[in-house]
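Fig. S4 source data, part A: sequence.
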Amino acid sequence: MNWKQVGIFSLILFFVLVTSGIPFGLVVFIAMVVKYPVKPYVHAFYISIFVTIVSTIFELIIIQHIVFTVFIINTVLLLLALLSGVFIGNYFSK
């Protein structure tokens, strides 16, 4: 295993997640809360779990193992998008 390539891949994935994941996650969670305002945090949490499972499966398919740094970064960014998106969605729906 080439750790230099894993490190470079992790950095690139981190920047892609930050630049596209948070705004996209915000839009998804805001739209979800505005459209379905009942139990928004529960629904958003289920979506987050589903996205985490799917992204982990893709990671296993693409690089044949889980890079825990990427997994943790992905999970933290998704939770940030969840919390802020649901909060903003609640604000817009009122």
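Fig. S4 source data, part B ends here. The two ends are 52 Å apart (CA to CA).
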